[in-house]
Design goal:
Blueprint: E1 7-8, H1 21-30, E2 35-41, H2 47-56, E3 60-70, E4 77-85, H3 88-103, H4 110-115, E5 120-131, E6 134-135, H5 140-147, E7 154-157, H6 159-164, E8 174-177, E9 180-183, H7 189-200, E10 218-220, H8 224-233, H9 237-249, H10 272-286, H11 292-308, H12 311-326, H13 342-346, E11 376-380, H14 384-395, E12 400-408, H15 411-421, H16 426-435, H17 444-450, H18 452-459, H19 462-474, E13 478-490, E14 501-503, E15 509-511, H20 515-520, E16 525-531, H21 532-547, H22 561-568, H23 581-590, H24 595-604, H25 613-621, H26 634-637, H27 647-658, H28 662-672, H29 677-693, H30 698-712, H31 718-737, H32 739-749, H33 752-764, E17 769-770, E18 782-783, E19 788-789, H34 800-813, H35 819-825, H36 833-841, H37 852-868, H38 874-879, H39 891-902, H40 915-920, E20 923-924, E21 934-948, E22 954-962, E23 965-971, H41 973-979, E24 988-998, E25 1001-1011, H42 1012-1021, E26 1023-1028, H43 1035-1045, E27 1047-1050, E28 1052-1056, E29 1061-1064, H44 1075-1085, E30 1090-1093
Parallel strand pairs: 1-9, 2-3, 5-7, 7-8, 9-10, 11-16, 12-15, 17-19, 20-21, 23-25, 26-28
Antiparallel strand pairs: 3-4, 4-5, 5-6, 12-13, 13-16, 14-15, 18-19, 21-22, 21-24, 22-23, 24-25, 26-30, 28-29
C-alpha cells in the first residue's frame, strides 16, 4: 500500500513552498510512487511543466488546485476545496473554476463548486477550515454542512487534526489522508520559514532556540512513510487507501502540441491561404520585384507556409502592421530570422529585402523541423498599447492575453532577502550584495568561485555561513509574477476554455502559463515590442518633416557620404547599438564605407567573435592578407574578408561542401551550436560523408569542419544584424541631415544620465538650448525655429498637473498676453507663489515686457487682486497696481536659478563671449571626461569661500559655471596664494586641473588659472607674422623650439617667400608675445621678418 501525496504545493505557490517540479519528480521516482499530485493554491502556473515531467517518468500526474470556498452565504465559514481532474473534461472544469475565481469578484460558494465538478474529484481540507477568519475549533457545524452534500466528496484530514477533533471520524463522507507537503527534507524547514517571512515581510530571530517552529499542518516529503505509520497506528488505514483509489480514478491525457492557431477572417469565399498568396504577389508587384528570382522564391515560401499551416499567422501579422501604417505609427524594419522571409517583405511586415541581402528563409521557417514562426513586431514604445488595443478589438477581449513570467530569486536577491529576514541592516545587505559579481545569471556557487570577497564574507562567522546556506536553498525559486515584455497570445476559442487566466495590466487578461507551456498546449505567441529607438526614430521623422514635408525615411539612400561620416567619426551618441565607448573605438579604427560594414560590426561586437574584429579591420584596409581554407569558400566569405561572421554562412558552407539542403543546414547549425561532443561527432561523420561524395578530400573536409566547429557558437543571425543595422543607419542619416530633429527626438526619450550627455553634445554642435516659454513649450522637449526648447516636464518641482493646465488653457483660450493674463486664465488651484516663482526663475515669462525681478516682486499683489476680483472690473484694471517694478536679477543669479530648477543654463553665458578660447584651446565642458583626467575648463566665478587647512593655511572652494552647468573648484594653499588676488566674482577664467566626481557632483583641483579676457585679447587683438626668405633645413625646427619655450595665446603665421605661401600654425604652436620672445625671433630671422599686428 502506497500513501499517494495529493496535497503538494510547488514553489509556484509563490513563497509558500521550496518544492520545484524536479524535486517532486525525484521524490516520486525514488519512492516508486505510481502517482503524484500538484495542487497549488488558486493557480495553475506549474501544471503543464509538472504534467510533462511526471509523465516522462512513467508516473501518473494528477493535476489539481485548491480554492477557498465559502461554506455559508455570509462568508463566515471557509474551507479550501482541492479539485483534481479525472480526465480532460475535468481539466476544463478546473480551468473554469480557476478562471471564475481569478476574473470575477464573486465569492466561490460550496454549491457552485459542487455544480461545476462532474469530472472533478473534490477534497475539502478540514485543517484549512476557518470560522470568522480563525482556525476552526468545533467541527460539528462543518460536518453538518457536508452531511447535506449528496455528491461524493472527500474530507481531507491529518493525524494531528484528528487527535484534536475526534468527532471528525463520524463524518458521512470518506476521510482522506491529506497532509500538506511544502518542502522535501526536514533540513529544508528553515528555507521554508524564510520564504514565508519574505512573503509576510516579517523577521526571524537567529539567536532564538524556538526560531524554527513548524508551520501547523505542513510537512516534508521525506516524512511520508512516518506519517503513514501514524495513520495506521491511529486506525486510519482506509484514509491512506483512499489516496490510492483517488489517484487511480485520475486518468488525465492532455492533448498537447496540437495546433490551436487563430483563424484570420476572410470573406468572398476565399481561403486564408488564397488571400495570403494574393497579398504577397501584390506586395512584390508594388515593390517592382517581379523577376523570376523573386517569383520563384515567393512561390517556394508560400508552399512551405501552406504545408506547415501558418497562412493565418502571416495574415494576422500583416493585418496588425497594416493597421500601424494606416495610423502613421512607425514600424521596425524587422528583427531576427523573420527578415529572411520574402513573404514577410512582400506583405510589408519587414523592410529588409532577403534576396538583396542574401538571407535564408529556412533560418526562419524550416519544413524539415516543426517550429512555429516567430516574427517580432517592433513599434514605438509609446504606441505599443495602441497596437494591443487594436488587437483586442479585432479578435475580442476574451481571445487575447498577455503572457505571465516570473521574477526569480537570483543570487543577490536570495542573499538580500535572507539577510533581511534575519535582521541585517541596509548597509550589511549592500555589503553582501556588492561582494557578489554583477554578472547576469550568476549563481551563488559561481560567485564563490569568482569572488574572494564573497568567500571571506561567508567564512567570517557561523551566522554568515547560515545566511549563505539558506540563500542557496531558495536561490532560483520564483518570487513574483510579471508580464512578458512583448508576448501575447491570440486564440479562436475563448482563452478561458484553453488556459488558466488572471488579470494582467492595462485591462488585459494574462495567461497563468508561461511562453513554453503555451506552446505545449498549442497556442502561438505573437511578439509586440515597444522599442524606445523606434519612438526616437518616429519623433525625429516627425520633426524633420515639419520643415521638409516631402521627406520619407523609406527613400533614403544607403550609400550616403554624410551618414557614413557619422560612423567614421564615431559620432554615434543616440545611435541604436553604437553608443558604447568600445563600439566607437571599433568604428574609429574600421572607418566604415558601406552598409555591410555596419552589419558586420553589429555581428562582431559580442563576446567570442569580438576576437575577429582586428582581423576584419586589417583585411578591409589591406594590411592583412585575405586567405581561404578552400577556393570554394570565396563566394561565401568574400563579403566578410574570409571570416565566418554569420550563421547563414555556416549554412551555405555545409550546403556547398556536403550537399545539405538549406533546411538540413539549419538543423546542422542548431545541432552543432549546442557544443555537445556527441552531436558534433555525429554531424562530422555525416558532413564528411557528404563532402567526400562531392569530391573533396579527407584533409580538406577535416579543416573545413574544424572551421565550422570553431565559429558555430559565435555566428550571428545575419537577418537580425541587417535589420538592426537599418535602424542604426536611419538614425545616423537623421543625425547627419536633420540634427535639430534628431536631437530633440533623443532628448524626449533620454534617461537623465543620457540627457546630460546629449545636452553637452548640443553645445558642441552650436545648437541653441532654449528655456521653457509659457506660449511655446509643451510637456517635453520641442523643436523651435531657434533651437531646442525645454518642456515643462523638464522643470523640477513643477507639478505635472500644472504643466497640463498651462498647455490646455493655451489651447482653449489662446496665447497668454502677459503674466497677469496667464494668472487670470489659470485654475487658481495651481497658482501658488512657489509654482509661479519656479516658472519665473526658468524664464518662462521672458517673452513679456516685465523683468524676472519685477515679476517675482509682483506675485503676491497680482494673486491678491485676482482673488478679490479687481481684474474683472475695467476701472479696477486701470487703477489697481499691476506690477511692482523691481531691479532685475543679475546674470549670475539667473543662471543659478535656471540650473537649480532644470540642471541647465539658458541665459547667454558670460563664457560664450570667449568662444575663440574654447575653439582653439581644447576646452572641455563640465562633466566631460572622467575622474583623474587633467583638463581645461572655461568657467565664470559665482562665489569664493575661503577656509583654512588643518595646518592653518588658507585655501578656497570656488563655485563656477559654464553653459552646461556648475562645478566646484578647489584651490589648495599653493594655488590659492598664487591666484586668489586675481580672481573676481562674475569674471571668466580658463582653469587647468584634475577632474573629480563625488556623490554625482563634478569638481576640479585647480593647478593653473588665466584670465579669459587677457587670453581673448591676445588671441583676437594680436597676430604674430614671421617671414622666411630662404629655405634653410634647420630653420623651421629652430622657430618651433622658440615658440614651444614661450607657449601662449597669440596665433602665429609663417609666410614662405620662395613659394608665396602663408601658413597658420596649429594651436599648440601659438606663443606668448613680449619683447624678450620677439628679440629671439628677430635674431633668428631678421628684424624686418618679424611683425606683430593688433
Amino acid at each position: 500500500m502506497k500513501y499517494i501525496p495529493l496535497n503538494i504545493s510547488s514553489s509556484y505557490s509563490l513563497l509558500q513552498s521550496t518544492l520545484t517540479v524536479e524535486d517532486i519528480k525525484r521524490y516520486a521516482v525514488e519512492n516508486e510512487l505510481p502517482a503524484v499530485a500538484l495542487s497549488d493554491h488558486e493557480v495553475m502556473y506549474a501544471c503543464i511543466d509538472f504534467y510533462q515531467v511526471i509523465k516522462q517518468s512513467k508516473i501518473n500526474p494528477i493535476i489539481g488546485a485548491s480554492l477557498t470556498c465559502q461554506l455559508t452565504t455570509d462568508g463566515s465559514m471557509t474551507i479550501d476545496c482541492f479539485c483534481y481532474a479525472e480526465n480532460y473534461q475535468g481539466y476544463r472544469q478546473l480551468l473554469a473554476l480557476i478562471n471564475k475565481n481569478k476574473l470575477t469578484e464573486e465569492d466561490l460558494l460550496l454549491q457552485a463548486v459542487l455544480e461545476e465538478s462532474s469530472h472533478l474529484i473534490l477534497v475539502f481540507a478540514l485543517q484549512s477550515t476557518q470560522v470568522d477568519s480563525h482556525p476552526c475549533q468545533d467541527f460539528s457545524p462543518i460536518l453538518d454542512i457536508f452531511q447535506a452534500v449528496q455528491q461524493s466528496v472527500y474530507l481531507g484530514i491529518d493525524v494531528q487534526l484528528l487527535s484534536l477533533h475526534p468527532e471528525i471520524k463520524e463524518a458521512s463522507h470518506s476521510l482522506l489522508a491529506f497532509d500538506h507537503f511544502s518542502y522535501e527534507k526536514m533540513e529544508d524547514l528553515e528555507a521554508r520559514l524564510v520564504l514565508k517571512a519574505i512573503g509576510e515581510k516579517s523577521q526571524l530571530d537567529y539567536t532564538n532556540q524556538k526560531k524554527f517552529e513548524r508551520i501547523p499542518h505542513e510537512f516534508a516529503l521525506e516524512e511520508m512513510e512516518k506519517i503513514k505509520e501514524e495513520y495506521l497506528q491511529a486506525g486510519l488505514l482506509e484514509a491512506v487507501e483512499e489516496t490510492e483509489k483517488l489517484a487511480a480514478s485520475c486518468e488525465l491525457n492532455l492533448p498537447l502540441h496540437e495546433k490551436r492557431l487563430p483563424k484570420f477572417k476572410v470573406g468572398n469565399n476565399q481561403s486564408s491561404h488564397e488571400l495570403l498568396v494574393e497579398k504577397s504577389y501584390e506586395g512584390l508587384k508594388k515593390r517592382n520585384l517581379t523577376s523570376d528570382k523573386y517569383m520563384d522564391r515567393l512561390e517556394k515560401e508560400l508552399n512551405v507556409i501552406e504545408e506547415m499551416g501558418f497562412s493565418d499567422y502571416f495574415l494576422i501579422v500583416w493585418d496588425i502592421m497594416l493597421f500601424a501604417r494606416n495610423k502613421k505609427i512607425q514600424t521596425g524594419p524587422g528583427r531576427g530570422s523573420a527578415a529572411g522571409s520574402l513573404v514577410a517583405y512582400a506583405l510589408e511586415i519587414i523592410e529588409v529585402d532577403p534576396i538583396a541581402y542574401d538571407l535564408i528563409f529556412e533560418r526562419f521557417l524550416n519544413s524539415e523541423r516543426y517550429s512555429p514562426p516567430d516574427i517580432d513586431l517592433d513599434f514605438p514604445d509609446n504606441k505599443r498599447q495602441v497596437i494591443l488595443d487594436y488587437i483586442q478589438k479585432r479578435y475580442g477581449l476574451g481571445h487575447v492575453a498577455q503572457i505571465v513570467t516570473f521574477g526569480s530569486l537570483g543570487a543577490k536577491q536570495a542573499v538580500r532577502d535572507t539577510g533581511r529576514v534575519f535582521g541585517l541592516s541596509q548597509e550589511e545587505l549592500s555589503s553582501w550584495s556588492q561582494s557578489i559579481p554583477s554578472k547576469p545569471g550568476i549563481t551563488l556557487a559561481e560567485a564563490q568561485e569568482e569572488s574572494k570577497e564573497f568567500v571571506q564574507k561567508i567564512s567570517m562567522n557561523s551566522f554568515n555561513q547560515f545566511i549563505y546556506l539558506i540563500a542557496g536553498k531558495i536561490e532560483g525559486l520564483p518570487r513574483n509574477i510579471s508580464t512578458h515584455a512583448s508576448g501575447i497570445v491570440i486564440s479562436d476559442q475563448e482563452l478561458a476554455e484553453v488556459v488558466p487566466l488572471q488579470e494582467g495590466t492595462n485591462h488585459m487578461l494574462q495567461t497563468q502559463y508561461t511562453m513554453h507551456d503555451l506552446e505545449a498546449v498549442g497556442l502561438l505567441k505573437f511578439d509586440i515590442l515597444g522599442l524606445k529607438n523606434l519612438t526616437i526614430l518616429n519623433d525625429a521623422i516627425y520633426f524633420a518633416q515639419r520643415n521638409h514635408p516631402d521627406f520619407k525615411i523609406s527613400q533614403i539612400p544607403f550609400d550616403d557620404k554624410e551618414t557614413f561620416e557619422v560612423f567614421r567619426k564615431a559620432d554615434t551618441n543616440g545611435i541604436f547599438q553604437f553608443e558604447s565607448e568600445g563600439m566607437k573605438r571599433v568604428l574609429s579604427r574600421l572607418q566604415p564605407s558601406e552598409f555591410e560594414d555596419i552589419v558586420a560590426v553589429i555581428a562582431l561586437y559580442r563576446p567570442g567573435p569580438m576576437n575577429e574584429i582586428n582581423s576584419y579591420i586589417q583585411r578591409k584596409k589591406g594590411d592583412e592578407k585575405v586567405e581561404y581554407l578552400h577556393p570554394d569558400l570565396r563566394n561565401i566569405l568574400d563579403q566578410t574578408y574570409g571570416i565566418i561572421i554569420y550563421q547563414e554562412q555556416i549554412m551555405r558552407i555545409v550546403q556547398q561542401f556536403a550537399g545539405y539542403s538549406l533546411g538540413e543546414a539549419d538543423l546542422f547549425r542548431r545541432a552543432i551550436s549546442k557544443k555537445d561532443r556527441k552531436i558534433i561527432d555525429e554531424q562530422r561523420e555525416r558532413f564528411t560523408t557528404g563532402a567526400m561524395a562531392n569530391g573533396y578530400n579527407q584533409e580538406e573536409v577535416q579543416h573545413i569542419y574544424l572551421l565550422i566547429e570553431r565559429f558555430a557558437d559565435y555566428g550571428f543571425n545575419r537577418s537580425h544584424a541587417v535589420a538592426y543595422s537599418k535602424i542604426a543607419y536611419q538614425l545616423a542619416y537623421l543625425k547627419a541631415h536633420f540634427p535639430l530633429a534628431f536631437y530633440v527626438a533623443i532628448l524626449r526619450s533620454a534617461s537623465s544620465q543620457k540627457e546630460e550627455l546629449y545636452l553637452k553634445e548640443l553645445l558642441k554642435e552650436n545648437i541653441k538650448i532654449l528655456g521653457p516659454a509659457i506660449n511655446q513649450s509643451y510637456r517635453n522637449y520641442y523643436m523651435d525655429s531657434e533651437g531646442i526648447r525645454l518642456g515643462f516636464n523638464q522643470v523640477k518641482r513643477l507639478k505635472r498637473g500644472f504643466a497640463e493646465e498651462i498647455i490646455t488653457k493655451r489651447y482653449e483660450k489662446g496665447l497668454y498676453r502677459d503674466f497677469i493674463d496667464f494668472c487670470k486664465k489659470t485654475d487658481p488651484v495651481f497658482l501658488s507663489p512657489e509654482a509661479l516663482e519656479i516658472l519665473i526663475h526658468v524664464g518662462a515669462f521672458d517673452e513679456f515686457a516685465q523683468s524676472r525681478g519685477t515679476l517675482l516682486q509682483s506675485i503676491e499683489t497680482i494673486l491678491t487682486n485676482i482673488e478679490s476680483g479687481q481684474f474683472t472690473v475695467t476701472l479696477g484694471e486701470i487703477f489697481s497696481p499691476h506690477y511692482i517694478e523691481s531691479k532685475d536679477l543679475t546674470v549670475l543669479e539667473k543662471m543659478e536659478q535656471e540650473y537649480e530648477y532644470t540642471d541647465f543654463i539658458f541665459t547667454d553665458h558670460p563664457s560664450g563671449f570667449y568662444r575663440e578660447i574654447r575653439m582653439y584651446n581644447d576646452i572641455r565642458y563640465i562633466g566631460e571626461g572622467y575622474p583623474g583626467l587633467t583638463a581645461s575648463l572655461l568657467v565664470t566665478i559665482h562665489d569664493i569661500k575661503g577656509i583654512q587647512t588643518k595646518n592653518g593655511e588658507p585655501m578656497a572652494f570656488v563655485t563656477s559655471s559654464d553653459p552646461s552647468g556648475f562645478t566646484n573648484l578647489t584651490l589648495f594653499p599653493r594655488v590659492y596664494r598664487q591666484y586668489i588676488k586675481k580672481i573676481e566674482i562674475g569674471k571668466t577664467y580658463q582653469v587647468l586641473g584634475k577632474i573629480e566626481k563625488r556623490k554625482g557632483a563634478w569638481s576640479m583641483q585647480v593647478t593653473q588659472m588665466q584670465d579669459a579676457e587677457k587670453i581673448h585679447h591676445e588671441m583676437t587683438a594680436c597676430r604674430l607674422f614671421l617671414r622666411v626668405k630662404a629655405s634653410q633645413e634647420d630653420l623651421p625646427f629652430r622657430i618651433e623650439q622658440i615658440i614651444k619655450r614661450f607657449s601662449g595665446h597669440t596665433p602665429v603665421y609663417i609666410h614662405f617667400e620662395d613659394r608665396q605661401e602663408t601658413v597658420k600654425l596649429k594651436r599648440h604652436l601659438w606663443m606668448e608675445v613680449n619683447d624678450q620672445n620677439l628679440s629671439l625671433l628677430k635674431d633668428l630671422l631678421g628684424e624686418e621678418n618679424v611683425a606683430v599686428t593688433e
